[in-house]
Design brief:
Chain B: It comes from Karstenula rhodostoma CBS 690.94. Chain B: InterPro entries: P-loop_NTPase, SRP_receptor_beta_su. The complex is a heterodimer of chains A (about 600) and B (about 290). Chain A is built from 24 helices and 14 strands. With about 600 residues, chain A is α/β, with parallel strands linked by helices. Among the domains of chain A are: about 60 residues; about 220 residues, Rossmann fold. Chain A starts with a strand and ends with a helix. Chain B folds into two domains: about 30 residues; about 220 residues, Rossmann fold (3-Layer(aba) Sandwich), CATH 3.40.50. Chain B has nine helices and six strands, in the order H-H-E-H-E-H-E-H-E-H-E-H-H-E-H. In chain B, helix 6 crosses helix 7. The chains are: A alpha/beta (about 600), B alpha/beta (about 290).
Chain lengths: ~600, ~290
C-alpha cells in the first residue's frame, strides 16, 4: 500500500483552504507515475477551481466536473507506462471525449455542443411531453451522431473500441458547423402541429402547449448560440489539415501549461539582472517592513532557523523544535504577511499558535471530578506515579495528596517503592506531616507499607483492596524510580499496570532534563503494554528553570499526552495546573 | 519676483481673474465630491453582523452552517480550522430591524445578510473560538450548538457544560472588565439543542436544566481546583490570593442561566435538528437570529 499525500495551499493561500489531493493506491508493482499524476492533478484543480477557492466567505467549491478529468489523466498515465507504442497510439487518436461517464460532464470541453443539447435534456425532464414530431426525434442527425458514443450510460470504451470509434467519426467530424446550420433552417421552418377535435387545427398561436421547446424556437437565442460556435473552441487542425475535436486531454494540457506559465515568471524574475536583483532586494526589504509579502520557503528559511535556535535555548528538545518549525513552515508558505508585519513577527504568531495547539489538552483534566465519578461507581480512585530516579515522584505524590486532602478526601498512600533504602521512611514522614495538616483541613490520610524487597505490583494491588475495605476513596501509589532505557526495570511496569489497574498513571519529569525528555516520555508511555499508556505528566522543579520551560513541549510533543500538574516550589501547596498561555509567553520571550 | 509683486501667484490668487475664479469654483465643487468618494470607499467594506458557532465537537455546527448556506446539508467532517461564511436569512424570517421595510427595498436584502463563523469544537482547537470571544467585533450573538442526545449522558454533558461555562465566563469577564461606564455591547447566547430527531434526545427545557446543573458542578470543582501556574511561572508572588472570577452570582449556590442577565448576557435555549427524517427543523434558531439582526 502506497500512500501519497500532496498538500497544496491554494495559490496565494486565498482562502487558506487546503487543497488536499490524496491518492491511495494499492498496487503490487511500483508505479513511477504517481508523482506526476499528483502534480498534474493539483495543477489542474487549482487551474479549474482557483477562482472558487479564492472567493471569501464561502464553503462551496463546485467540483462535480472534476471526476472525468481525473479519470482521463489516470488513464493517460497508465497508458504511458504500459508501453511506448500504446502511448503514442493514444496520442494520435483523437478520442472525442467518448469515454466520459456522461455527456454532461464533458461540458467545459465542448461548450457549444452542450448549449445545443440543453433543450433536448429539458424535454426529457419535462413532465408534460407533447408528442410532436419535433421532440420525439432528435433535431439533427449530425448531432445525434456525435452524441452516440456518449449517450451510453457508463460507456467506458476500451482503448481498442475507442480507436475504432475515432476512425468511424474522423470523417464527419469536420461537419460540425454544417450540422448546426442545417439545424437552424429546420428549427425556423418547422411548426407545431396542433390537434383539435376534427383533425389537425390550422392555427392557434395563443396556446402553446410545448413549453419545453420555447427556447429552441426563440430565434434570437438560437442565433446567439450559433454565433458562439467558434471552430477554435471545438478543436484545432492538425498539421495534415485534419480537424481534431477538442477534448479533455487538450483542455487539461492547456490548463496545466497556463498554470506552469504563471509560475515560470516568478522564478524567472528572481534570476534577473544585477539591477533587477538589487531592486528586488530593496523591494523585499521594504516589503518586509511594510508587510504584504508573499512568503516563500527561502524567505522563511533563515528566520525559522533563528526560531529553532531560540527554542533550543529554551530547552526544547531538538526533535520537537524541528517539528514545530516544520509545521510553522507548512502553515506559512504561500501566505501573505499582513500590513506592517515583518516575517519574523508572522513566524512568532504562527509559532505561538502551534505551541498553544500542542500544549492544550484534548479533554478536561479535572482530577476532582474524575475522583467523584469513579467513587460514584463504588470503588476507590487509583492514581500511580512513575518516573526516572530523583525527579521528585514522592514529593509530587505528597503534593497531590495534600491537594486531595484539602478537598476532604480520604487518601491511602501505598509505598510500592520496595527497592531504594529509605523510600518507605520518606513517605512515612510525608504522611505524618500531612496527617498534622489534615487535622485542621479535614480529610484523612494513611500509609500502606509492606517493607522492602517485595513485589511492587502485588503491594499496589493489596493496597487497592485494602482501601476498598477500609473506606478510603483515593489510593496514591508511589513506585520506584527507574531508568527509562533499562528493559529489565521497565518490564515490571506492565505487570504493575495490570495488577493495580490505576485509573490514572502520571509520569513525573523534571523541567531540567533537556533533550532526554523525549525518550523518557516515549519509553514510559510504551512500558505499560498495549492498550495502556500514560495519562499525563507532572513537570517538577519548574521554579528552578526560569523561562526555560521547553521540557513541557518536548514531552507533550513526543507522546501527545497532556501536562496535568506543574511543581513550582518546595511546599505542599506548590502544585499548579497548567496555564498554556503563560507557558507560550515564556517560550516566546 | 517676490511673493508680494503684482504678478506673483499670491496676488493672482486674490485678484478677480477668470482663472482664479474657475480654480476656486472647481475646488469648491470637486473637493466635497472627492472627499465623499474617499470616505465612501473607506467605509463601504463594513463587515457584516456575524454569529459565532461554538460548541463541543460533533454537535452539528458545520452541518448547520452548510444548511444555511446551501439549503441542504452537506456531509461534514470534524473541523480543524475556522470557517467564515456569508449567508442569507431564509425568506420566511424577517430581521428585527427590517419589519417596517418593504420587500423590494434593497436595504431589506442587505439586512438579511449575515456571517456565520464556524469554529472547531475539538478540545485542542478551541483557541480559535476563545480568541474571537476575547475580542468580539461585530458579533451579534453566539450560537452554542449542543447535541441534545449526548447531553443525556454523563460524559457528553460534562464536556458541553465545561465548554459553555468557559464561554459564559469569558463573556462575563468582558462585561466586568469593561472600562467604560456604559459597558460593552450585549452579546446574547443561543443554546441550540441539536439532533432532536433522535430518540434519545432530551427536550430543550431538559437540556437547559441539565446544563445548569452541570455548570454548577463545574463551578464548584473549579473553585476547589488548583491554582493556575501563570503567576508562579512568571516569577510573581502568587501567595496573595489572586482575584478569581466566578460565573453567576459570586459562584454560590446553584447556577441558573437567568443569573447571566445581570452581566448583559441573555441565554435562550431552542431545540431543532439539522438532519432528520422529515428534513431539517431549525426555524426557531433562524427566528432567534432574525431577532438579533
Amino acid at each position: 500500500m502506497t500512500t501519497h499525500w500532496r498538500i497544496q495551499h491554494g495559490r496565494g493561500r486565498c482562502t487558506s483552504g487546503l487543497i488536499r489531493v490524496q491518492a491511495v493506491y494499492q498496487s503490487l508493482v511500483h508505479m513511477t507515475w504517481i508523482d506526476k499524476l499528483l502534480d498534474d492533478i493539483r495543477t489542474l484543480f487549482v487551474g479549474l477551481y482557483g477562482e472558487q477557492l479564492k472567493s471569501k466567505h464561502s464553503s462551496v467549491v463546485n467540483c462535480d466536473k472534476f471526476a472525468p478529468y481525473f479519470e482521463r489523466k489516470l488513464q493517460d498515465l497508465e497508458g504511458q507506462s504500459d508501453s511506448g507504442f500504446s502511448a503514442t497510439g493514444t496520442k494520435l487518436t483523437p478520442p472525442s471525449s467518448t469515454d466520459n461517464e456522461s455527456a454532461d460532464e464533458s461540458a467545459p470541453a465542448i461548450p457549444s455542443l452542450q448549449k445545443q443539447q440543453k433543450p433536448l435534456y429539458d424535454t426529457s425532464a419535462d413532465s408534460t411531453p407533447v408528442p410532436t414530431p419535433d421532440t420525439s426525434r432528435p433535431s439533427t442527425p449530425a448531432q445525434s451522431h456525435l452524441l452516440a458514443g456518449k449517450a451510453g450510460p457508463g460507456a467506458k470504451l476500451s482503448r481498442r473500441n475507442k480507436k475504432k470509434f475515432a476512425a468511424s467519426t474522423s470523417a464527419p467530424v469536420s461537419s460540425g458547423d454544417e450540422a448546426s446550420v442545417k439545424r437552424k433552417g429546420k428549427g425556423s421552418t418547422k411548426k407545431n402541429r396542433v390537434w383539435g377535435d376534427f383533425g389537425a387545427e390550422e392555427e392557434d398561436p395563443s396556446v402553446v402547449l410545448d413549453y419545453s421547446q420555447s427556447d429552441l424556437r426563440d430565434e434570437a437565442s438560437e442565433g446567439e448560440a450559433l454565433a458562439e460556435i467558434d471552430p477554435e473552441s471545438w478543436g484545432s487542425r492538425t498539421g495534415k489539415g485534419q480537424f481534431v475535436l477538442k477534448d479533455l486531454d487538450m483542455e487539461m494540457d492547456q490548463i496545466i501549461a497556463e498554470q506552469n506559465a504563471k509560475q515560470a515568471p516568478t522564478s524567472a524574475a528572481s534570476g534577473g539582472g544585477l539591477v533587477g536583483s538589487s531592486l528586488g532586494a530593496i523591494g523585499g526589504l521594504f516589503r518586509n517592513v511594510v508587510g504584504g509579502k508573499t512568503l516563500t520557503e527561502e524567505d522563511l528559511a533563515k528566520p525559522l532557523k533563528g526560531m529553532e535556535d531560540h527554542l533550543l535555548k529554551k530547552n526544547v528538545a531538538r526533535e520537537a523544535a524541528v517539528r514545530l518549525c516544520d509545521s510553522v513552515k507548512r502553515d506559512l508558505v504561500g501566505l501573505k504577511t499582513s500590513s506592517f508585519t515583518t516575517v519574523e513577527a508572522t513566524i512568532r504568531t504562527s509559532m505561538e499558535k502551534a505551541l498553544t495547539k500542542i500544549l492544550t489538552p484534548t479533554s478536561s483534566l479535572d482530577l476532582l471530578r474524575e475522583v467523584q465519578t469513579v467513587n460514584a461507581a463504588g470503588r476507590p480512585y487509583v492514581l500511580s506515579i512513575v518516573g526516572v530516579n530523583g525527579v521528585g515522584k514522592s514529593t509530587n505524590l505528597s503534593k497531590i495528596a495534600f491537594f486531595l486532602l484539602q478537598n476532604h478526601h480520604r487518601v491511602l498512600i501505598a509505598a510500592a517503592d520496595t527497592f531504594r533504602s529509605g523510600a518507605v521512611e520518606q513517605l512515612r514522614v510525608h504522611v505524618r506531616n500531612l496527617q498534622e495538616l489534615s487535622k485542621r483541613e479535614g480529610g484523612q490520610v494513611d500509609l500502606f507499607e509492606k517493607g522492602y524487597g517485595k513485589d511492587a505490583a502485588n503491594i499496589a494491588a493489596d493496597a487497592v483492596t485494602h482501601a476498598a475495605k477500609t473506606d478510603f476513596n483515593v489510593v496514591l501509589i508511589d513506585t520506584a524510580g527507574r531508568r527509562h532505557n533499562d528493559q529489565r526495570l521497565m518490564s515490571s511496569l506492565e505487570k504493575f499496570g495490570k495488577l493495580a489497574k490505576p485509573d490514572k498513571i502520571l509520569m513525573v519529569g523534571e523541567a531540567l532534563v533537556g533533550s532526554d525528555a523525549v525518550a523518557q516520555a516515549r519509553n514510559f508511555n510504551q512500558s505499560f503494554g498495549p492498550g495502556r499508556g500514560l495519562d499525563g505528566f507532572v513537570i517538577s522543579k519548574c521554579d528552578t528553570v526560569g523561562d526555560m520551560v521547553g521540557t513541557l513541549v518536548s514531552m507533550v510533543h513526543a507522546t501527545g499526552i497532556p501536562v496535568v500538574f506543574l511543581g513550582v516550589g518546595q511546599h505542599y501547596a506548590d502544585l499548579r495546573g497548567l496555564n498554556v498561555g503563560s507557558v507560550c509567553r515564556l517560550l516566546m520571550s | 519676483m517676490a511673493w508680494y509683486d503684482e504678478d506673483s501667484w499670491a496676488t493672482a490668487a486674490f485678484a478677480p481673474k477668470g482663472s482664479t475664479i474657475a480654480a476656486t469654483f472647481l475646488l469648491a465643487v470637486l473637493l466635497p465630491i472627492l472627499l465623499h468618494q474617499f470616505i465612501y470607499r473607506k467605509v463601504t467594506p463594513t463587515s457584516l453582523p456575524s454569529f459565532l458557532l461554538i460548541g463541543p465537537s460533533g454537535g452539528g455546527k458545520t452541518a448547520f452552517l452548510t444548511l444555511t448556506e446551501r439549503k441542504a446539508v452537506a456531509q461534514t467532517h470534524t473541523s480543524t480550522a475556522p470557517l467564515a461564511v456569508e449567508v442569507l436569512l431564509p425568506e420566511d424570517h424577517t430581521p428585527q430591524s427590517s419589519h417596517y421595510r418593504s420587500l423590494g427595498d434593497p436595504a431589506y436584502e442587505r439586512s438579511r445578510r449575515f456571517q456565520l463563523n464556524d469554529t472547531p469544537g475539538h478540545g485542542k482547537l478551541r483557541q480559535f473560538a476563545t480568541n474571537q470571544l476575547a475580542n468580539p467585533t461585530n458579533v451579534r450573538g453566539i450560537i452554542f450548538i449542543v447535541d441534545a442526545a449526548s447531553v443525556a449522558e454523563e460524559a457528553g454533558l460534562n464536556e458541553s457544560a465545561e465548554y459553555l461555562h468557559d464561554v459564559l465566563l469569558a463573556l462575563q469577564k468582558r462585561y466586568t472588565g469593561a472600562t467604560t461606564s456604559k459597558g460593552p455591547k450585549e452579546i446574547p447566547v443561543l443554546i441550540a439543542a441539536n439532533k432532536l430527531d433522535l430518540f434519545t434526545a432530551l427536550p430543550p427545557h431538559l437540556v437547559a436544566q441539565q446544563l445548569e446543573k452541570a455548570i454548577s458542578d463545574v463551578r464548584k470543582s473549579r473553585a476547589k481546583g488548583l491554582k493556575d501556574s501563570g503567576p508562579a511561572l512568571d516569577g510573581e508572588d502568587d501567595s496573595l490570593d489572586e482575584e478569581r472570577e466566578w460565573l453567576g452570582e459570586g459562584g454560590e449556590g446553584s447556577f441558573e442561566f437567568a443569573q447571566m442577565e445581570e452581566v448583559g448576557i441573555t441565554v435562550t435555549v431552542q431545540g431543532g435538528n439539522v438532519i432528520g427524517g422529515d428534513g431539517a427543523d431549525v426555524k426557531s434558531w433562524y427566528e432567534w437570529i432574525a431577532a438579533q439582526l
